[in-house]
Protein: Undecaprenyl-phosphate glucose phosphotransferase
Amino acid sequence: MPADSHHKDARLAPAVARAGWGGTGPAPTVPFRSFDRRRAWTGTDPLPPWLLIGAVLLLDLSLAAAAGVAISSMPDTEGRPAPALIALATSVCAATAGAMGAYGHAALFGTRRASAHLVAGLAIAIGALMLAAQAFGSTDAIPVEPALLWFAVGAPLLLVGRAATSIALRAAAERTRQRAVLVGDGPQAARFVGAMQARQDRSLRLLGLVDDRPPDAVDAERGHSGVPRIGSLQTLCAMIRRGEVDQVIFTVPWASEERLSRLQATFADYPVDLRLAPDLAAYHGGPEDGLEVGRLRLLRLADRPMRGWAGAAKTVEDYLLALGALAVAAVPMALIALAVRLDSPGPVLFRQRRTGFNNKDFFVFKFRTMYHELADHEVRRQVEEGDPRVTRVGAVLRRTSLDELPQIFNVLRGEMSFIGPRPHAPGTRAGDTLFEDVTDRYPARHRVKPGLTGLAQVRGYRGRTDTEEKLLLRLDSDLEYIEKWSLWLDFVILVRTLLAVARMQNAH
Structure:
């Protein structure tokens, strides 16, 4: 860690101490580089929710399709469903069940409501196809008797499959449950914990509890909820930064609006799901109001960016783009490596520390563009136009952004995305100010993996960041990308990046 970061930690120590504040005013921002990175929680990390959901979805699709294929293969059956019709029906079944909540993380652990949604999805899918066949005059496509037989065979299969899935997930609880920490002790937390225990919820693992109030305000209630205390808000923030917490659940009275607002503001820039526990003394919510925990409903306050299916789609996109780019750029990269080696003595690649997802540092790969003896690993001075430290080949590579091509390997290593906020080196300054000191929102860009290119770059916010205004323009685009991410947005950024490279616009 650069020396500047250590000095920053010392300056912000009072703010850290106030992390468990109970006073008025805006919530203090807990500094991101002030935490001990040693793991406090030594259990096994859970599997990503999207992986569990994908496996259950694949099983459900297979069982629904198997029932259709079995009906189609029966002898002396008129109007057997065609393979295309079976595929369509199974897709509609999964989509309908998913829309009703059958694939929420908690629903995978065997709630009767999720099973009912799954059976309802199959009934709706078969019924919709029958109505469509009637409307288009193709009554032979799926007659009533085969349709009813399909449902009679498929529904029990889906129920048995979901029961087996829930048993397997419960048996592998160490790898399937989401890790949660409660914030706020007192009657509200006690009622919530008691309700979870009564309903035997198996989708969450409560690691402990922290309280956001000063010690003199909680001494009388210490241990009220029966959940072990793990420290202060600072401790919880450190655990999130180490990747040890998946959900933060606020167990405070709903009437404490100011307190809830402060808590939400504190964790807004962390890659963690924020939930509000139901006020069990007066709560009467419906299915549309939140997320199911057993039969409780956790109200959704904020989600991690690109979670669930979005995270799965982003991961697939990254690897497909990286492999495709590597196939196309392999020969040019070999030629560039040869040119770098012939132009000046020194290694072909340059490794530099950058800050990535969840504020964790990693080494980014680049083609060397400076003379080896003048390399600036700590980014003490940003490169300027005509910089004498840059080699002849390096100037061309930087102008065309081709020096970034080796970062394809960072994507394949899982350290970067193909598209996302560009990674910055720790200790980089905008003028005389460290990036993280310019604005409290700067760490929010680390809620997702950094990228080879991003929205800020295609908007022209590239090159030197020598003023605070330039950094703020970049940051605004980065945060907009995180909030509005979609596959279409990534496609647009990719096309605009290729056009910018073709025009040989200035690189960052």
Observations:
- Residues 309-502 form one domain.
- The CA atoms of residues 436 and 442 lie 6 Å apart.
- The two ends are 23 Å apart (CA to CA).
- The longest helix spans residues 309-343.
